[in-house]
Write a structure and sequence with these properties.
The complex is a heterodimer of chains A (120) and B (218). Chain A has 120 residues and is of the alpha+beta class. Chain A has 2 helices and 6 strands. In chain A, strand 1, helix 2 and strand 2 form a beta-alpha-beta unit. In chain A, helix 1 packs across helix 2. The radius of gyration of chain A is 18 Å and the shape is elongated. Chain A starts with a helix and ends in an 8-residue tail after the last strand. By secondary structure, chain B is of the alpha/beta class. Chain B contains 8 helices and 8 strands, in the order E-H-E-H-E-H-E-H-E-E-H-H-E-H-E-H. In chain B, strands 4-3-5-2-6-7-8 form a 7-stranded parallel sheet, sandwiched between helices. The relative contact order of chain B is 0.18. The chains are: A alpha+beta (120), B alpha/beta (218). Chains A and B meet through helix 1 and strand 6 of A and strand 1 and helix 6 of B. The structure holds guanosine-5'-diphosphate, magnesium ion and zinc ion. Guanosine-5'-diphosphate binds next to helix 2 of chain B.
Amino acid sequence: MHELGIAQNILDIVRQAVPENLAPDIRKIRIRVGQFAGVIPESLDFCFGVMAEESGMKQAALLIEEVPTACRCRDCGREFTLKEWVFLCPHCGGANLEVTSGKELEVVDIELVDHGGEAS
Amino acid sequence: MSIITVERKVLEKNDQIAERNRRFFRDRGIFVLNLVSSPGAGKTSILERTFERMRDSCRMAVIEGDVQTDLDAQRVAEYQVPVVQIVTMGGCHLEAGLVADAMGKMDLDGTDLLFIENVGNLVCPSGYDLGEDLKVVVLSTTEGDDKPLKYPAMFRNASVLIINKTDLIPYVNCRLDVLRDNALKINPDLRIFEVSCQTGAGIDAWCEWLGGKGARGQ
Ligand SMILES: Nc1nc2c(ncn2[C@@H]2O[C@H](COP(=O)(O)OP(=O)(O)O)[C@@H](O)[C@H]2O)c(=O)[nH]1
Ligand SMILES: [Mg+2]
Ligand SMILES: [Zn+2]
């Protein structure tokens, strides 16, 4: 269950980006998760929910953007997204591929409500 | 609503420490292997067979990762190989910081090969760089020939696959050629060794390759 550790890292990064007194105003934390990052989005979402609750970000929700695995063929130069886990170029059959995306695990941005700007 | 742009890697702290570990190893000419597998595939057994063959020709050391006990470290210590145990207290993978702590507890000067035996798990360790030169994934024949397809990230990120327990092939439902094909579909560059720690078959080929990596001035 290393999603717990990942959720902790996300919270640390958010804390460094948002002053403590604004933590309750956080609504969304957008993260990018590659298909290939070894993270299960559902369980990350669950772990994050539990931990955010405890850390004063009661209304913060994770917005998970899943990134498909994309490759570039070093033989024919073409790019494509992987359908199944077969690392072969669908154009030329080459196996000499560079994985160009799909390993991402990044915090993109954080959305907060503005006080005064919204009646709540 | 206001938006704060962050654009930071979730594992950036781990990656930074891993880079520091890697520089430390490079400066001292230590070749580092991160061993990963499901629990019981035979990582410690492979280390034992390796020490028997290579302890006279090569200076080796081990960092053992385990969820609970230091039993593996005790097994390794019997071969007079320096070993430090990391107990992760339930953690399902090693992180670069834990490895850095362990490095601080050993004298690695003069070491040719350092093995890091990761926690038994084929999912979580794949995302955590420890500062190693390469990952070795160990798969035993009892686990079935479809495992590479179920854990593609691990097989893609590894450079070496050791298929262990080949002595059990007559008794289990594992087709070696299918297993090899599946692994190479995920990672055509994978170097594959087939061994049995029980009979010692295939250990020579593995050790010969390893000896080349541990040789000084590479
Ligand atoms: N039959 C057979 N058993 C093996 C072989 N290699 C390891 N084992 C057994 O498998 C079990 C787990 O091995 P171990 O090295 O502790 O696995 P680890 O958890 O990956 O370190 C032990 O009981 C070993 O004796 C092998 O090649 N053949
Ligand atoms: Mg072991
Ligand atoms: Zn191609």
